[in-house]
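STRUCTURE:
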């Protein structure tokens, strides 16, 4: 079930898409928006952070939050609240972890796990068909976290839970590149195919290629270890 912040982000996304909030315009104040959406200021800030990572808005300190629909993520000016772990640090963390998740998942997955991956894939593709980037990114996160679960390694699963918020933020950034919003879903298909073939090396390689491509889409250097 989507979080309160994601539901709020979807609501704001729709209002941007239908022209209620036009490009260049400032969103209403946090007090006004939180009242309109019947959510806390904390949930609203999380929703705005999600939209900022997706390239739909940009916060300008002291001025407000402005609609920038289609604005590509700028790695030199990350969204507020991400200073403790930069996009570069996030992709390095993921490069160290996720190919291993995928490889172990290929060795240990069963039919139920494959069915879960397919359900997530369909959900992501359905969201992309209607340009719901908030839910597409949410399905994206579910895909990656499920691979950690399918690794069946308690330590790796624990790390995925510990860093799920940061991974989710990292996954949203490539969606700011509107020319390639389908690329993550296509790359997930290749990862799933390798896992379904029980080929650990291919699954790990497909994940590493996915992470490198995601980094390239937003101009982040991918570690060549």
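SEQUENCE:
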């Amino acid at each position: 079930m989507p979080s309160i912040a994601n539901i709020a982000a979807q609501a704001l996304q729709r209002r941007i898409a239908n022209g209620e909030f036009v490009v260049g315009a400032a969103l209403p104040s946090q007090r006004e928006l939180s009242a309109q959406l019947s959510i806390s200021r904390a949930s609203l800030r999380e929703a705005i952070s999600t939209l900022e990572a997706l390239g739909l808005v940009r916060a300008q300190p002291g001025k407000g939050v402005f609609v920038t629909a289609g604005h590509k993520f700028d790695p030199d000016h990350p969204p507020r609240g991400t200073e403790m772990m930069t996009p570069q640090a996030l992709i390095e963390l993921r490069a160290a972890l996720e190919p291993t998740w995928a490889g172990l998942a290929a060795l240990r997955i069963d039919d139920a796990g494959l069915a879960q991956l397919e359900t997530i894939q369909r959900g992501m593709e359905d969201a992309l068909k209607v340009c719901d980037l908030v839910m597409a990114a949410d399905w994206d996160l579910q895909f990656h976290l499920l691979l950690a679960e399918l690794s069946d390694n308690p330590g790796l699963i624990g790390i995925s839970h510990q860093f799920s918020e940061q991974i989710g933020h990292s996954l949203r950034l490539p969606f700011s590149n509107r020319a390639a919003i389908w690329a993550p879903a296509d790359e997930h298909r290749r990862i799933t195919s390798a896992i379904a073939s029980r080929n650990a090396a291919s699954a790990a390689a497909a994940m590493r290629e996915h992470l490198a491509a995601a980094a390239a889409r937003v101009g982040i250097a991918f570690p060549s270890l």
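REMARK: Residues 112 and 170 are 28 Å apart (CA to CA).
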